[in-house]
Amino acid sequence: MPKPLGQVKVLDLTRVLAGPYCTMLLKELGAEIIKVEVPMIGDDARHFGPFKNNKSLYFMSINHGKESISINLKTEQGKRILRELVQQVDVLVENFRPGTMEKLGLGYELLKELNPRLIYAASSGFGHTGPDSQKPAYDMLVQAMGGIISITGWPDSPPTRVGMSIGDITASLFTAIGICSALYQREHTGQGQKIDVGMLDCQVAILENALVRYQVDGVPPKPLGNRHPTITPFQAFKAKDDYIVIPVGNDNLWKIFCQAIGREDLIEHEQFLTNKLRTEHLETLIPLLEAEIIKKTVAEWSDIFERVGLPHSPINTIDKVMTNRQILARNMIVEIEDKDVGAIKIAGNPIKMTSIEEETTRKPAPEIGEHTDKILKTFLGYSDEQIAELRQEGVI
Amino acid sequence: MPKPLGQVKVLDLTRVLAGPYCTMLLKELGAEIIKVEVPMIGDDARHFGPFKNNKSLYFMSINHGKESISINLKTEQGKRILRELVQQVDVLVENFRPGTMEKLGLGYELLKELNPRLIYAASSGFGHTGPDSQKPAYDMLVQAMGGIISITGWPDSPPTRVGMSIGDITASLFTAIGICSALYQREHTGQGQKIDVGMLDCQVAILENALVRYQVDGVPPKPLGNRHPTITPFQAFKAKDDYIVIPVGNDNLWKIFCQAIGREDLIEHEQFLTNKLRTEHLETLIPLLEAEIIKKTVAEWSDIFERVGLPHSPINTIDKVMTNRQILARNMIVEIEDKDVGAIKIAGNPIKMTSIEEETTRKPAPEIGEHTDKILKTFLGYSDEQIAELRQEGVI
């Protein structure tokens, strides 16, 4: 079986993270990604660290397997090439500030005339409508604006950012859902459509029960460090050498836990009989538990908890993540072989499907314009002479 | 135009968060969701707080608009009903521990014989393969195991959990992408397939550049509080009354920022000329900036930064999020009118598409088995007598 998007062609005008991560997902699902880059300069992320041998691993890790065509969209000929390409593809993805495509004369309203089947997906900071749609966005900004920072961290610490770009990544995921659903719908309607995803909107969409918690008591939820808001004990404890996460999710596990740490006396203690009681008395309970957990190392506790069937986890640093047996068994660490950098490990595809055969390697990311000639020839039938001329004129 | 998944029927066997959030997304895209619940007990999340008038708002906020049929899957007749329903739907989603469906005699291999077009999506903690696939998972556990906790928080603080269930939510999003792409593919192949998404895998997939950062210097990335790893200044600063996020993303903004805070002298300072230099000397630079920002309130700085076009944001708490003008303009806060609870506000759909007309309300979540009779009649043609008998026998 071919991959699910095996016949889908995507014209990718995105830069940096939210857009390229989205088209990377589409690539993993089998789509052909034609990345449009500014000649000589390319995607901004080519200039973002970390670097190895002067190449951006940041760029490489989210643009593998894409093909790059360089086009100067400020020239008339460049715009013409783009319009021609639009007629040959199924999907266009862009993450410019709203209105940029219109200023270039390449807005959705014009492009859909050229290709009514086009699915046009725009990923932006604040979406294409509303009073603040024109403002610049950064991941950190939408994390602050959308509320996630207000519920992450410690009550007495400065504001704490989620340690990865959750603003960009979730926008990528929602955009990919929109694109795939529009592809499905097009099979019935024959029509494309526009998809408009704002990073800030996505931050609100993932707040989960924080919105309703606020409506019950009128108090904005606060950060809780690492403990669960309503289940106790369910947090990281300091062991002799490092922290260990112990989620005691129900009363049965509570008994197993008390036995495992040698505090059977707590099981029938009237203040700790139910989860509700344990949460009410957590300020009494947690110090009692801390006093026990500190006595042994994470490895020692892991052995004990493993034997009695109690869930637990160390706080894995990235090196441990990359060697975790389950993560490796799931093929979640794959390798790129880049001609300049050598072998680099990146994350694999978490969507395991019958139609996607697992592969342990990925193709490298393209150089700027590496596939310009190939794309102009195969998609648009340009001749070598025409291409040479366009190159001389600085169009490609 | 109908919604993109307007003709899609989903049999939803999921509980708690990762599964129900996924089928909520499918519902927003137009799918019909038939939620299968244990008679009398229902989805575990019905018993999770926050509560209002004895009803779980947690449950309500992610199950709105679904229809509920109660079936006791431990009875032979219950299994038969499920097998009959499988033949009438496009998609089945479950988030049991791997092997549970097989033990019930309802594994994918059997179900696909009944309906070769069935798209069977399993969302689980560790996926359906690998040495740890049978272990129980919680959001907190996969956050710890997958590395995100190791890069979130402060260098000197205890481990910090991301303040929402990023393990569940990202698994939902990846599963929804898999389902939509499989629906698209089925239009060409006529065949369904199995999708297998593990929460832990998804945590690895969203680590972004942390994996490659580690490979450059061999040092596992550490939490950085709220600052950007490679751009400076790009963090939250303490103003007179609260914190404000100031992302100075390029050299031009650096000049504007220095002028706005009355420190033009820093613009040409040899230690701070470029972003690279500012990041190298951040321990010198940040205290100088902190000394200025503390002098005015967040509102005062916001006015100043607004005038000069410098990006900035307060740390919005949930109450501020729910009244933010852009978030409201984007219809990202919608309302449910529940007969017992009254009006409750929840997050809207961040996937804005031509084919989805914005609606400011959502239907309430179902009671356990509220639609049992309707579904048995319309999907399977059961008579009132048959239904009464099944109810008496405790099957539904």
From TrEMBL, chains A, B:
One MF term in GO for this entry? CoA-transferase activity
Q: Is Transferase given among the entry's keywords?
A: yes
Q: Which domain of life does the protein's organism represent?
A: Bacteria
- Pfam families from the xrefs? CoA_transf_3
* Keyword set, alphabetical order: Transferase
UniProt entry tagged with the keyword Transferase: yes
Q: Please identify the protein, giving its name as recorded.
A: Putative formyl-CoA transferase
Q: Which organism is it from?
A: Vecturithrix granuli
